[in-house]
Write a structure and sequence with these properties.
The structure is a homodimer. Chain A has 13 helices and 16 strands.
């Protein structure tokens, strides 16, 4: 059993390699080779620790596996990261374990890779102003992912914690040459060509009236029952796409849209990222329309990213062997 | 992250230690400290590989975790074990991974530990003849577990494969001083004081008419939709107990009894192994009655067993440090 640490991932796993693996995974999901099993949710630590299990089969490799993910907000006070993920890869045929991958950094890469793919398919080619609402640990990943696929020159970010502003700014400055400003959610929304929401919100943080024609929105936050980032009128106005129809209406942004009668499960089955990537569908957004991508986060992203990490580590150890030969 | 291999478990994890951990886990389940999350089922390898995920929180430690289990029957032809399990333990408070445990041998111990606990609570003190139906890899674990808690002098085993008979006999001879005979399912059932079914059957392998008064039956096989080992009339006649009511009526033997109107979910909530172990309930079997324990296999058994294995390995490495000091 191969073990890949978080530090291994940070050093040796480039975003581009994860992006390519995630693209193959979404294509295999759409053509029926991949499967996403039901998400399991539970709690630990006296109800203060939210635990989730995502499992599935990535037919593009193929590999089976499971990611155990934790969100323990009390970790901030302990000086520890609040999100922790660990992925176990299982041989598709024999069921034997292949690898255990610490997937904290990797989870940031795999989530933002779906965003990058959606932006590539849905956002205007010349989009240059990125609005980000929410500046927790995932926000930097999202900014770098969008900048990977569009010529971003300006970032407006909304988030009130001074410590998080400082951390976000330091990391953006380290990786990108852009103008960075902090603003409120309304200003971010009004100015953005591409708007990314990455919050744990349970009520809309973006109102329809704020969003200008031609904007693409990636709603990355909603991944559980009750979570919501976008006003229903905005979803109604938008050309909407999802990572996985069934999961999206259960734990994603579309749970609210379905209840409001704005989308149907049948309709969403035609509106997946996999179909966009395969060229089987395209946005019908008019010049003054808006597009939305709802990311609920899929097990196949976890498996594809973990497998990419294992491949990177094999290449590293093979290089090391060649160098010492 | 601690890694415990299957070989570590075989060498350093005694059954008695697993048994004590599993008993604590069932007690914590009954008193509300433990939780079993939903079981996830999927397939890999072109539908020839059955994949399951059991997760939960064992409040007796406390620890969170997940077991990924595979059954790939094609592995026989590959010279590999057909069942493979891997357990990931997660810190209850912080969500950080603690250990990865190869749980092939351990799975045999944890399953048979529940059987031993049920036998201790339900079978007659003087039960000396054990009938076993099914002689796959799990059967030896079950025989040893029953012999751990009752004075077994004779074993009758039903199973037709010559290779499996040979393997079963070799292992029983290695560990126990008993009379061992192979017989058909009817003879095993008629002679047994304690009868253990450990098959992948999807139709009854034990008929009511075969079972003599005073017999205890542990039905270990049914752990998925459609599986069944006992005739409904036998379940109707018996005083029935379960590991987990909700899971038992979904994937255990009680799925059929519920449909036949023989048991209710509300009734089973009073008939759990945890309640027996806490002394909050006892069998109402009369001298000529029959008891049944339906084991569907719980995540908390996986977590308790994996944690016991980690503790054993810590003791081993501490002994090694002392010896070298």
């Amino acid at each position: 059993v191969i073990f890949v640490s978080d530090d291994d991932v940070r050093r040796h796993v480039p975003f581009a390699q994860v992006l390519a693996a995630i693209e193959r995974a979404f294509i295999a999901l759409d053509d029926g080779r991949s499967t996403v099993f039901d998400v399991v949710r539970g709690t630990g630590g006296g109800g203060e620790h939210f635990f989730g299990i995502k499992s599935g089969r990535d037919g593009s490799i193929p590999v089976l596996g499971v990611k155990a993910g934790s969100y323990a907000p009390g970790n901030y006070a302990r000086g520890l990261p609040s999100h922790t993920s660990t992925t176990l890869l299982i041989d598709d045929v024999t069921g034997h374990p292949i690898a255990v991958v610490e997937a904290n950094h990797l989870n940031g890469l795999r989530t933002s890779a779906a965003n990058a793919l959606a932006v590539r398919c849905l956002a205007r080619e010349d989009a240059s102003t990125l609005g980000i609402i929410g500046i927790g640990g995932q926000a930097v990943f999202e900014a770098l992912a969008v900048a990977h696929v569009r010529p971003i020159r300006r970032i407006l970010a909304a988030g009130s914690s001074p410590a998080r502003r400082k951390a976000f700014e330091e990391q953006i400055r380290q990786h990108l040459s852009v103008d960075l400003e902090f603003a409120d959610a309304e200003t971010c929304s009004r100015e953005a060509d591409i708007l990314v929401t990455v919050t744990p919100a349970r009520a809309p943080v973006v109102l329809n009236a704020w969003v200008k024609p031609g904007t693409h929105i990636s709603a990355m936050g909603a991944d559980n029952v009750g979570k919501q980032e976008l006003e229903i009128d905005l979803v109604r106005r938008a050309d909407c796409w999802v990572d996985h129809p069934e999961q999206s209406i259960r734990i994603g942004e579309m749970q609210h849209a379905l209840r409001a009668g704005v989308v149907t499960l049948e309709g969403l089955r035609e509106r997946t990222l996999g179909r966009l990537l395969r060229g089987k569908a395209a946005t019908t957004r008019t010049a003054d329309g808006v597009t939305v991508f709802d990311s609920s986060g899929l097990a196949i992203q976890d498996l594809a990213a973990a497998h990419a990490a294992v491949e990177c580590m094999r290449a590293v150890s093979s290089d090391a062997r060649s160098a010492s030969a």
